[in-house]
Design brief:
CATH architecture: Orthogonal Bundle
Order of helices and strands: HHEHHEEH
Protein name: AAA ATPase
Organism: Pseudoscardovia radai
Strand content: 5-15%
CATH superfamily: Winged helix-like DNA-binding domain superfamily/Winged helix DNA-binding domain
Structural class: mainly alpha
Helix content: 55-70%
CATH class: Mainly Alpha
Number of domains: 1
Number of strands: 3
Strand order of the largest sheet: 1-3-2
């Protein structure tokens, strides 16, 4: 009820979908983009490797995708946990802490990879 009124407010499904899309764009522009800009190229690569999974990522799988050993990949895992971007969801697994970051990376991953290639990587 709104202010004691018993009338219901109906929002068309298309308006909800458009609002959701716009909110995710704003979140990407104001949170995800700046968070990624402050990371090393390998930190961004780690996140891109995680984004390939639909849920929590096994740290061993991430290392394989990065073509690095587990110890090397763990340095970036630790950095990203300290940066509050990912968290250890269970033993040997990490997941995104920032809402919708996986979706953002899937949509913008090519941009971040291209930027790394143009700058010479790390």
């Amino acid at each position: 009820m709104l202010n004691g009124c018993r009338d219901r407010v109906t929002i068309p499904g298309l308006d909800v979908a458009d609002g959701d899309k716009q909110a995710k764009i704003k979140l990407g522009d104001m949170v995800h983009g700046p968070a990624l800009d402050g990371l090393s190229a390998m930190g961004r690569d780690y996140l891109l490797a995680m984004a390939q999974d639909d849920g929590p990522s096994a740290t061993g799988d991430i290392a394989k995708r990065l073509e690095r050993d587990l110890g090397y990949a763990n340095v970036y895992r630790t950095q990203l946990i300290k940066e509050d971007i990912i968290y250890q969801s269970s033993y040997g697994y990490v997941d995104f802490k920032l809402p919708y970051l996986r979706d953002y990376l899937r949509e913008h991953g090519a941009y971040h990879q291209m930027r790394k290639n143009l700058s010479g990587g790390e």
